[in-house]
Amino acid sequence: GDSVTQMEGPVTLSEEAFLTINCTYTATGYPSLFWYVQYPGEGLQLLLKATKADDKGSNKGFEATYRKETTSFHLEKGSVQVSDSAVYFCALRGSTLGRLYFGRGTQLTVWP
Amino acid sequence: SQTIHQWPATLVQPVGSPLSLECTVEGTSNPNLYWYRQAAGRGLQLLFYSVGIGQISSEVPQNLSASRPQDRQFILSSKKLLLSDSGFYLCAWSVERDAEAFFGQGTRLTVV
User: Fold this and answer.
1) In whole angstroms, what is the distance from residue A61 CA to residue A73 CA?
2) Chain A contact for B96 (CB, 8 A cutoff)
């Protein structure tokens, strides 16, 4: 079945460091891919998305490229801030059944 | 604009007691509705998925059930709670096949 495998954390970085959180997926057909962010005590917010191969989603300095050949959707940011501290989830929506599946989440902590 | 309401925000229930969590969506018709559980350190698990009134798909066998009595209302229930039912429960909705899901603020359930 469809699934998402996400780099396990926690990830701890200094402010202005480069961030990569790896995400790979397994799916039939052509899924849509998402990154969500969850701040402490809150629900999830969409960070970015890509709906077809080679699409690049971007928002708030974060980027991720839909790579069908490597079945990956890695999240990157060139210079993280303290306010980026949160849990990040990679997610997949299967093209046939429409269900939305999430990875286990990666806790990011950025120190000043 | 569309909004999602989920309540209560926090709940402490004794083992063996019943449960009813409610989620309603405003500003859209015929949404896809989801219930997720986020247990500590275990990521986001899809519990139930609904594409219409009375149409519920269960993703995992468990002590919980879901119902959709109205188009924009999704209810998560249990007849007798277990300690393992503790967690953070999130309701979400989406409309289009490739669109992202929008989340409620979640319910923190502690079974004691």
Assistant:
1) 16
2) no
